[in-house]
Fold this protein.
Amino acid sequence: EAGVAQSPRYKIIEKRQSVAFWCNPISGHATLYWYQQILGQGPKLLIQFQNNGVVDDSQLPKDRFSAERLKGVDSTLKIQPAKLEDSAVYLCASILNLSGDTQYFGPGTRLTVL
Amino acid sequence: QKEVEQDPGPLSVPEGAIVSLNCTYSNSAFQYFMWYRQYSRKGPELLMYTYSSGNKEDGRFTAQVDKSSKYISLFIRDSQPSDSATYLCAMRENTGFQKLVFGTGTRLLVSP
């Protein structure tokens, strides 16, 4: 079974530029999560999708961050414009259904904002 | 105060030692407790999953939950250099949305 795929793995941009991350969850997984992990901290949930609908985006900075999962499969997370404090690893995770036990994580995209 | 507190370490031990990792939490509604292992430049992977209070053992790993004290632990017996990683505790309420709250992670270094 293929795991959660993310791209790119690394991205370096200057502040005020825009950036986009892509995630392809495990096949058949209905629920998809985006997390932000700042160096030395645990992952913090940004947004949760159930199929192509948003379940929770309470911690997403909506003035600069946006995310979509148009066909209920893969997802993109965008930052526009980026700030220095957005430097972090952006993790995507998926789970088969909400009664399941395990969120499977991708390898993450490491973003550096200069 | 953070919902979940975890000592960031690093914790350095010799090979073969017993390792104890801990988290405390403040939200009494948390019912599910997990430990994830994260190697450098990798995503977290689930190690142990416990519902409510009690102990759970899986090979060299034992997870303990004490809800009365709001305290969870992960014990690693006969630690190996390959156990060197960051260990994240995570927990969630008994709702339908599987929203996890993570600790900061403890970095463990096992020296040969």
In short: Chain B has no helices and eleven strands. The CA atoms of residues 27 and 41 of chain B lie 30 Å apart. The mean pLDDT of chain B is 94.
